[in-house]
Prior knowledge:
Elements: H1 4-12, H2 18-21, E1 24-27, H3 32-40, E2 46-49
Parallel strand pairs: 1-2
Amino acid sequence: MKYHRPLMQAILFGKTRIAEAVNVEVISLDEAPRGYAALDGGAAKKFVIDPHGSVAT
């Protein structure tokens, strides 16, 4: 609990990139089958499906 506030502040003020810390990849809706296949294969990665291309990468 003692780390929650400093971590939140670091994220809010751009001192850390949370997506890189948790290994996130933004994919389009067309790439979703590839993402699910990777997860089924045991990939240590998180996928964010962005069907409208509105998430900044």
